[in-house]
Design a protein that fits this description.
The protein is of the alpha+beta class. About 50% of the residues lie in helices and about 25% in strands. It has one helix at about 1-60; strands at about 70-75, 80-90, 95-105, 110-115.
Length: about 120
């Protein structure tokens, strides 16, 4: 008589283990999909930070700008904004000053930054 119930018990254990495996795989896939979605936003934010840095370097090179510590500059391109800050050389060990640029991709709020010293 005990043999009839053991088949049902064995089937339930197999079903439970299969369910755990499926749930584990699906949670991993969901996390990977979210990471892939934000990867593109990250690249756009990084390009915004790079644009801000390049713009400041160009203005310094053309002598249109004489940066001072504490100066901040803002700009945007479509849905990408950037903020460039000029810091004193003592904060980063540079010879003259440090330039920090933060790019933001507006729809998701993803931010990426770059820092250069001169």
């Amino acid at each position: 008589m005990q043999e009839k119930g053991s088949t049902l018990y064995f089937a339930l254990v197999i079903l439970f283990i299969a369910s755990l495996i499926v749930l584990s795989i699906s949670s991993i896939l969901v996390l990977q999909i979210q990471t892939i979605k934000t990867l593109g936003d990250s690249a756009l934010a990084f390009s915004g930070a790079d644009t801000g840095l390049e713009e400041i370097f160009y203005k310094i090179y053309k002598e249109e700008l004489q940066p001072n510590p504490g100066d901040e500059f803002y700009g945007s391109l479509d849905s990408i904004a950037y903020k460039v800050s000029i810091n004193a050389s003592s904060t980063c060990g540079a010879k003259y000053y440090c330039i920090k640029s933060i790019g933001t991709y507006q729809p998701s709020g993803t931010k990426r930054g770059l820092e250069a010293s001169m």
